[in-house]
Records
---
Amino acid sequence: MIGAGVVGLSATVALLRRGVDVRCYESGEPMGERSVGDTRIFRLAHAYPDMVLLAGRSRALFAEWSERAGVTFVDEVGTVVSGAGAGRWAEAMATAGAAHEMVEAGSPLLRLPARSFAGPALIDPAGGVIRVDRIRAFLVDSVGNRLRRAHVDAVEETGPGVRVTSGTEADTFEAVVICAGAGTSALAAGVGIDIPSALEHHLRFSFPIRPAAPEPLQCWITESADGLLGTYQHVAAPGSWAVGGEIDPALVTWEGGRRAAEQASLAAVTGYVAKHLPFVEPRPLAQVYCAHNPDLGDGLRFVRRGRVLTTYGENLMKFAPLLGETLARACVEGSTPADAGGI
């Protein structure tokens, strides 16, 4: 397993439960890059029915994880999707048979940090806050000494198997899964697998929640507003509200550098909070940074070449336990899982 993000760790745990001798390579901190942060949004709501169904299966597996760990991994406060496109998401949920409701701003069913917003709103009652901090501790403990802190330089299929080279050391395995986040494209290219490689800088920021805010606040995904092409929002640490915004791509290019992207993102998101979220103070408390692939959206992709399997997509945290089981089964069987959703 190359990469100890949430997907790599989940797959490693699933393989260990099957009795497979597995090693997980990671050069940095486990879940320290694209899986970074202590909370994320869980949702059944997606624009594609197959993704709704997959999210439902993942939610059931999160519940199994919670039972094994003795802690709650998803705080089920609900997720709201607002804007003109919410109707399409509602259609997908209806097709998949998932519980949902369409409402307008001002509905008593809404508990958001704003009183008004553009467009109707879809309420996904099964949505909520993923406790990434708890999941990280659970997975790292479950993987134990199968985690190897090393940077993988190359993956190469040979006669007897797949050689993984790390510095001056090389090991050969029967099969390899590459799920190394921003590093996946380069490693996959070494075995002839071509996947999207573009990167941009992405940030989200946390702000204090005012005492008058409704409780418990629902997670919230919005469409464009005042320079932001969309936002995702949820409770972060107790008393703080996380807001991630999709801003003008020209302001967060990889070539432009992280510092410029941080400044542009902070200005845009803080301005949005000040204008649109009366129950949130526009005073940044913390930020979370990751490298983001602008060419990917909601969707799961799997590509195999010989004994090497790669997986990629964005917003994969909510599918972590399902992806772990799916990749483990594919490793054992030598199969390729079916793609899902749209990218």
---
Amino acid sequence: MNSIETEAQLETWLSEPTPEVIETLGRLPGDLVLLGVAGKMGPTLARMAKRASDAAGVRRRVIGVARFSDGGQETLAAHGIETIRCDLLNEDEAARLPEAPNVICMAGRKFGSTGDEPLTWAMNAYLPAIICRKYRHSRIVAFSTGNVYGLSPPASGGSRESDPLQPIGEYAMSCLARERLFAYFSRALNTPMAILRLNYACELRYGVLVDLAQRIVCGEPIDLAMGYFNVIWQGDANAMTLRALAHVSTPPWVVNMTGPETLSVRDVCIRLGELLGKPVHFSRSESTEALLSNASIGLERLGPPRVSAAELAEHVADWIARGGRTLGKPTHFESRDGKF
């Protein structure tokens, strides 16, 4: 395993397009707008889109839209990505955004939802209406979450796209509302869309594996109540997202986006402990259900992951052991009551 030494190396790897992504963006015409680009996935997703377009010989504007309250515009601009400051909830500002045939919507709210539920509902359930009216003539790929399913037995292989939706807590309910709004406008305006139920993206600075590794290093007990999980390398999630632009439909194509394995928290932590040279302490025991998604359809149509969960765990352990910077944004994947 080649160690990732710097954040520059990491972001280059995260934004490396696959041949299939290059083919997709070489075939699809027009500019690309990424709404909510300043989040955890947005910057490397935008870079992958730019790199793939350049590799395909396509002249395309890649435009990242966000409030940029924590900065980041200069970094994106250095990689050839245009940026626009915009409060998407402000309809006048949103109306002035440039038109584009291709739109990826990552804007939404999860953490901090408890205690400020109105803003969560505005971001997740009202904003889609603004976006759909603005980009009614575009193809839209919109992010959602596996939280809309609720919990399922690990032996089931995870929730499938056709399973009943049973969201737990206001965050998950607002995400289901987001999906319903996108679906409504897709039908009403004949706008082709794809809805991606992501669960969970991970790189070396954040994600479930980072959360677990940090707790092991600190000697904190690992709660096993949410005893199983899915994970996907963020670079693979980026690639699947861009390929989804070629799979939009009316009504929306809804697909799970995660890795192929159902991972045991206990087994993963034991392996991380070995890699980190640290003892692992557990609390409670595995419950009979967990938040899990079946990724088979998405992996078949959008491509298999390039990085396995085992390889990702090795990279995370190496990064954490060397004191690599993390984003300080825990996933709270262990939450069973839907409160974030």
---
Amino acid sequence: MASAALRLPENVPGDFFVDSTCIDCDACRQIAPAIFAEAGDASIVHHQPETDEETKRGLMALVACPTGSIGTTDHHDAHIGIDAFPELIADDVYYCGFNAESSFGAWSYLIQRPDDQGGNVLIDSPRYATQLVKKIEALGGVRRMFLTHKDDVADHHRFAERFGCDRIMHAADGAERHGVEQVIRGEEPIEIDRDLIAIPVPGHTRGHMVLLYRNQFLFAGDHLAWSPKRNSLIAFRSACWYSWTEQTRSMQKLLAYDFAWVLPGHGRIHHEPPAKMREALRDCIDWMKTR
């Protein structure tokens, strides 16, 4: 829970605030950009909510914050933020909220599908929170959990125990050590079912994978994200834990696929027609080769 005594001085005066425990994961700035902004190595409140919708977005950011660094001085109904998750992004794809500190605030996603089409898929693990678990259960539970890489596994074991789901992870990132049920090996893409393709993309970590859903949604983990500053796709050079050369090579593999959405664990979500997305991907690869 955020402490008013630790309130960062850069916050504008008023109800919402960020305290000094902030780890600068960027979640609040994505959820409620009208309220939160970057200041050095932290997020701060640059605008106090003035409407019910702005207040709701602020409370969603408070709930999602992995370190509990967002607080309010006024009384608010916490359920306004809690009940907003999972948040529909498009079609049958949701953002889970409840980001986990152990994943440095990485975003997790849920695909809701009928059982006869393979059932629901959880991509990476959010924080195990009773309120979220109940909401996911109401949406049909979890049949599979896809873990993109070792950094963002968070509370995967608790979700697996609760829903009895099969986890999917690459051997090179310690899948067997984590007790994962379906272990992927090598670099060949694996068709999990007719709508889901697991694509190994070593680079950020040795066993990193992305998940392509319906040739529309690319769940990118820490491999790829959108950069508003560059107005293009980007990889994180300073957070490449295995090999930048391999990550650049892996990025080129994605040119063989169509997708209209990039849904990362860190960084900005982006949506464009596949042709535009491929153009942005080529730009990203050219940029990576100069780093």
---
Amino acid sequence: MTDRPSRVLFVDDDVGKRYAISRQLRHAGFVVDEAETGAQALAMISPEHDVAIVDLRLPDLDGWEVCRRIKAGETTGGVMVLELSATWATARDRAKGLDMGADAYLVHPVEIVELVATVNALARLRRAVHERDLDRELFVATVGHDLRNPLSAIGGSLEVLGMSKQLEPREREILNRACRNVGRMRRLIDQVMVFTQSLSGDMQIHDAVVDLAALCRATIAELDTPKVDLVVDQDPPFRGDPDRLTQLVENLVTNALRHGTGTVTVRLASEGDQAVVTVHNFGPTISAEAIPTLFEPYRRASSRPGGFGLGLFIVDRIARAHGGTVSVTSTDEAGTTFEVRLPQRP
């Protein structure tokens, strides 16, 4: 584990109390940042913080709401939150705070030795979770690397075999099927790697000039199905990560093929300063109840077999990493449409 001192954000509008407690925390070895309001705290909080100590009685937002927003943050959800209150001090108040996401709850005035011990315990838990996440990422990266090498060798050997002019039609069909499965295995490895990066909020995006129309055509061609049409209303100039954008389009089209019926339509357009990619299919609709959680991991819109519920989560994270959004509409009359909006950059 790293030897860096634990970092604490202390949120309290009482200047005297904030000064006294912050001084004691610094004396105990913590790095302490101070905030006076809930809005200030939310602007300051970062993944570098191990613990946020939040007074419940703040001039703008109550501490429960500050806690909820910290825990809902994509990069701050792992920060431990200690709620501190002199006003709401009953067992029911403490239970409410814990139920709303706080990791600990103390009633003020609190003995400094108890406060320091509680913050230390929360910081240790935060470090343990962080180390576990790093170990998981290292494991997945190592496995992904070790799987790619033999897979590349298999793919290269199949390409060499494909150059032979002596293959019978049946043999060539088997060879082509093997090549498609090698490609599918490569994509599955990439999916797992991206999923792991997404959970830690550390998705790597490489910046390059991307021809979105050509990218969509190549992605659709790789899927090797006649059931996908591409319509290019406009081919906007775009900068982004071609590998991640390929995954985004492939996941949406694969999802539409798996859960829809008939032809899938991919449309590329430009609206203002945004590139817009839509994927449309007919078939069973997505219920209104399922839509709010559709882009969460391990969620699936139907009971049809196939997939682990990661594809749309990865789509959402790739869109976010590019500063964009993804949304869905689904009705019996119009079918299902996933829409990705990505900001165009010079």
